[in-house]
Amino acid sequence: MEFQKLFEKFNLEGHLLLPDTDVAFKEIPWSKHPVFAGVELKHILTALQSGGDFSFHLVCIAPGCKIGGHVHEKQLETHEVLAGKGVCINNGTELKYEPGIISIFPAGVPHEVLAGSDGLYLFAKFMPALC
Asked: Most C-beta atoms within 10 A of its C-beta, which of 11, 17, 84, 90?
């Protein structure tokens, strides 16, 4: 599908490049979300690599699935929508999610994300690191 090209570019051809590191995203396994069915994560950069300062994750939400309402008490979270469509509830306000949208959730702000009929693909960042 045309809308998935940017996400697939990240997923299959992306790299984390640091002065002493080159990690191909395709070598990083997908993990099922421990709580939300239909949600998978690819941990691009973790607390171990950043000294706990931040973490980066590709997120795939299957069609019609969601990351239910929750709060991160210690982390600021950002979402960059790479592909698909959906809705985000950010501190009680409904926001339309589509490619090119960035949303920010300060620590302690309730939020949830619902994928549309084609699924939703995000690049999520946490400061300090989520995991």
From this structure: 84
Q: Are residues 119 and 56 in contact, defined by beta-carbon separation less than 8 angstroms?
A: no
Given a contact cutoff of 8 angstroms between Cβ atoms, the answer to whether 113 and 84 are in contact is no
Mean pLDDT for the chain overall: 94
pLDDT of residue 4: 57
What mean pLDDT is predicted for residues 59-81?
97
Which pLDDT belongs to residue 25? 95
Question: Does the CA dihedral 46-47-53-59 come out positive or negative?
Answer: positive
Q: Write b or e for each residue in 112-131: b if 16 or more Cβ atoms lie within 10 A of its Cβ, otherwise e.
A: ebbbbeebbbbbbbbbbbbe
Total number of residues shown for the chain: 131
